[in-house]
Structures are given as structure tokens and as C-alpha cells.
Amino acid sequence: MSLILDCTLRDGGYYTNWEFEDDLVKEMVKCLNFSEVDYIELGYKSPLPGGRFRKCNDKFIENLLKDVEVFGKQSKLAFMIDAKDFIEDNKVNKRLLLDVIKPKDKSPFTLCRIATNYETLDQSLKMVEIISELGYYTALNLMKVATLSSLEVGLALQKIGKSDVNMIYIADSLGSLHGKKLDYLIDKFRKSCDEWDKWLGFHPHNNLGLAFSNTIQAKARGSFDIVDGTITGMGRGAGNLRIEQYLMFYDKPTKDLLNLIQKRFVPLMKKSKWGWSPSYMYSGIHEIHPSYPQELQTYHISDSKIQNKLEELSFSGGKEFYNQDEIKPLSEKSVSIVIPARYKSSRFPGKPIVDIDGTPMIIRVADIASKVVPKENIYIATEDERIAKVVDDYDYKVILDKFYQFGLKHGKTQIEWSEDIEILRFLELGINVKMLETYGTTQAVDIPEDVDKVLEILNERKS
């Protein structure tokens, strides 16, 4: 059996901003150890903003896992860096790299993986050199490999082969690999790894529903030394190889892991909605970056309409690269949420901007709404400059208008104009008329699923 690396926290962090509860991480590490997983990738080491598992501070990880009981073999710990985060003016920012990554003898981590595109390969190999000198085992994940020409694949392998890197990964970033194309890449990479004495890894995505079968077939040929998976396939878009499926196929102990999945990951999956869909299948077939259909799924439209919208995009920067500006015009055609926020409450003046555990109440409501529709489709309507300033500080859109001075009271809208006037006002502001209004004080309730149901009803009525 090939070695197995779990990257649930790193790939799943795209749904949680790389923040996970301590007890979940501890239980997960314990279960993966028991299931004989060889490496556990706990997240990124990144200079960019994000949760604790986008930073993977050495001391934090040591303290978090120091009391975790481990049965059987001890899984080794890994982290990933994104090469582009450490490149400035086409050169490696060595000072930044060394500020983020400390020497191996001061770290709980064993393996550093570097995610790179073909365009940043030279700089990534320089990073390999620096990180190897710090004492880490290194791996290079060559992303979007399916889009490279035969010449580019050959040149890349020649450069990588001569480097200090220990593992080379085929990263099926677009979830498009299968059949002859996958066989061709495996043969090319395997030959290079054998020639240069390196391990070959595989990071499958499940857009075509083939992550498991691709991995098993390649394993039968003895092609890969190490493969990646995530719990329930958690990851951007269609997700990855389900690690529990792979472990069960090879008769590894998984009872504890399956209990953890049922208890913690199934609810998270229902909330964040990763996994195969016809839209991701379409993106895999056409080698479109999975972030496009993932974003469009937040617009609460059918898979057929998502395909229509994907066909509208120009992909000026290349369809394998995600460009948020490409999809912005489409967001204007989707559902909007308007959140009324009145400052002049007789019982609690200023309630919408009261601080709750470090975040203003109205922003908490907006953050919940952003799980249902794109952030640019959320509007906070208020009559007060103080609320408007807070909203603006958190980069949400604000409607500052005297029409909202009446606000909401006892669940009934106290607005003294007809529905037709209201619609005309929003049309004037360029806001889609198909709107959903929610309260500015609903922060204590986890409403995304309820809002989803309302939007489904609105869509059914429209059709």
C-alpha cells in the first residue's frame, strides 16, 4: 500500500477560513493515527490573514497536540506553503520565508509541501533549497498539470529532478485527469522519479467522480509512493479522495474515524456543501477552475443554469485560473439580501453596532448572510451615519437613507411607503428586485439553511 497523507485541515480550511475547534483537531489526529495514516497536513504556513491553521505556528501546534493519546504508529506532521505568497518582483522573499518557517529542530513538523504552478517553478525550487537546509523533508505539488504541454512537462521534470526535493506530486487541480492523459502523466513522472530517486505523489480531485478509481488503478500498477485524501473528501469544489474510503478498501481500522465523521464532519458538510455535483463535473470536463462553479452555487440556481453562466464567461486570463472579476457581472443577476439596521431603538439605542465578542452585531448578521449569497449581494440599510461607518469598515455595502428611520418593530415593517416605491428605490440603487429581508439582530441564530429554503421557494415561484 502507498503511504497516505491526510490534508483535511489544509484543503478544508477554504470553508472555515482555516479555523477549527481544538477538540475536533485533537480527535481527528487521534483517529488518523489509529487508522495508520502516515502524514497529517495540519494546514498552511502563510503570511496572509486567516485562522490558526493558515499559520500553523509551531508552539501552537505543539501545545495543541501535546496531550493527544496516540495508539499504534505515530503519524508525521506536515504543512504546506503556497509559492506565490513568498514571491515579490519575480524573486523569492527569503526573509519572509525564514520568518514564517523556523528550523526543523524547533518544529513539530517533518514535511513541507510547496504548491506551485509551472510559471513559479523556478522560484519554488529555490524555496526547496532554502527549506531543505532548515532540515525538512520537501515535496513539490505541481498544480494544473493537466493543462501543460508535453514540452512543459518534460522541462518541469528535468528541473525538478535535478533539485533537492524529495517528492514530486501530480496535482489534479482541475479534477480533469482520467484515462490516457492520466496514464501518460503517470508514466512520465514515474520515469523521472525513478531516474532521480524521488517519491511520486498524487493529489486527486473528484470533479469527474473518479478520485477513488484513479487512485486504486494507479496503485495497482505500483505508480504512486504516496497519495492524498481528506475526511469525507473535504476540500474546495468537488473535493478530494475520501480518505475513509481508501483506508477501508485496504482494510485499515476506521471505526473511530467513521464515528468522528458522523458526529462532526457530516454536519459541517451539510453546512458548507462540498462534494460532487453536475456543475463540478462540467468544470472538470472543460478544465475550468472549480472556484467558478463553487461561487455560482451560492447564487441558488440550478446546475443547468450554472452551465449557462459558465458559458457566458470570457476566461480572459485562462479558464484554469480563477479571476473574481470574471464572475462579478454574474453576481449582479443573483439574489440579494437587505438587512435593516435602525439605530434609534427606544429600548436599546445603537443595538446593531454593539460589540459581541469582538464583532459588531450587525456584522455578525451580515457574515451569516454571506454564507448564503455572495458578499457583494448583501446590503445593510440604515438611517444612521454611525452604523454606516461600521458597515463600511467591514467592507459591506450600505444604504444610508431616511426611508429606514422607521425600522422594524415586533416583526412588522414600519415603513411608510408602498411596495412599488420601495422597488423603484432599489432599482435606482442598482439592486436586484428579487430580495430577501432579514433582521439586523438575528446574530444568535444560525440561519443559512433557513434562508436557503426561502430562496428555493422564491426560485420555484419564479419558474
Structure description:
The chain is 41% helix and 16% strand. With 463 residues, it is an alpha/beta fold. The protein folds into three domains: 3-272, Alpha-Beta Barrel (TIM Barrel); 278-331, no CATH class; 336-462, Spore Coat Polysaccharide Biosynthesis Protein SpsA, Chain A, CATH 3.90.550. The strands form five sheets. It has an eight-stranded parallel β-barrel, surrounded by four helices.
Q: Unreliable segments (pLDDT under 50, ≥5 consecutive)?
A: 404-446
Major beta sheet, strand line-up: 1-2-3-6-7-8-9-10
Give the biggest sheet: 8 strands, parallel, barrel
The CATH architecture of the largest domain can be given as Alpha-Beta Barrel
Residues in β-strands, percent: 15-25%
Overall tally of domains: 3
**Distinct helical segment count:** 18
Principal-axes geometry comes out as: globular
Radius of gyration: 24 Å
How far apart the termini lie comes to: 51 Å
Which properties best describe this structure?
alpha/beta, 3 domains, globular, TIM Barrel, eight-stranded parallel β-barrel, Spore Coat Polysaccharide Biosynthesis Protein SpsA, Chain A, 463 residues
